[in-house]
Amino acid sequence: QPEPEPQPAPTVDLASDVDFISVGDSVTLTWSSQNADSCSASGAWSGVRATSGSQLITSIQSSQTYSLSCQGPGGNALTMVSVTVLGSLNLSWQAPTENVDGTSVSGIGTYRIHYGTSSRNYTDVVEVSGDEVSHTLELVMGEYYLALSAVDLEGDESALSNEIRRQAL
């Protein structure tokens, strides 16, 4: 009796049209598979799916992971895609008028917003115009620690401001 030919293993691809969204936004998931007879969704969605297709997911409120498993004579294949919901963090500040030595500030070139997810550990910096006294950061929802510095027209950076703790919602 000859050995049966091995069946090719299934493959599955799953993609989202966007990786980052705001609360309440929608995404379209698109998938395809090869050597599969059936597929099923799990994670943030569920149920039987065709072996290829697309689906609009609406009104997403928090970051989600979508999984798709496809089965065929040669085995199973699993893939996942994540969609991250961003929150807004609104900041405002008063422009400094004097240096620590009491002399007048001659001009602010830019402000630097230093932030991170643990106290005094700023992993990111955003630079905004010296004409601005507010800025909105679009960040993954959660808690952040922030401090501000000013950079004068000659490029000298001030010390960091007092730290604040804020939620990106």
Describe the protein's architecture and organization.
By secondary structure, the protein is an all-beta fold. The protein is 0% helix and 57% strand. It has no helices and 13 strands. Strands 2, 4, 5, 7, 8 and 11 form a 6-stranded mixed β-sheet that branches. A 4-stranded antiparallel β-sheet has the order 10-9-12-13, with no helix packed on it. Strand 7 (64-72) and strand 8 (75-92) form a beta hairpin. 15% of the residues are buried. The model has no long low-confidence stretch (mean pLDDT 94).
Features:
single chain; about 170 residues; mainly beta; six-stranded mixed β-sheet; four-stranded antiparallel β-sheet
Helix content: under 10%
Specify the structural class. mainly beta
Quote the beta fraction: over 45%
Unreliable segments of 5+ consecutive residues: none
The helix tally amounts to: 0
Q: How much is the average pLDDT? A: 94
Tell me the Rg in angstroms. 25 Å
| Molecular shape | elongated
For the largest beta-sheet, the strand count, sense and barrel status come to: 6 strands, mixed
Distance between the termini: 66 Å
Number of β-strand runs: 13
Order of helices and strands: EEEEEEEEEEEEE
Present the secondary structure layout:
Blueprint: E1 11-16, E2 20-22, E3 27-34, E4 38-43, E5 47-49, E6 52-57, E7 64-72, E8 75-92, E9 108-116, E10 124-129, E11 134-140, E12 142-152, E13 164-168
Parallel strand pairs: 2-8
Antiparallel strand pairs: 1-3, 3-6, 4-5, 4-7, 7-8, 8-11, 9-10, 9-12, 12-13
Entry summary:
The chain contains no helices and 13 strands.
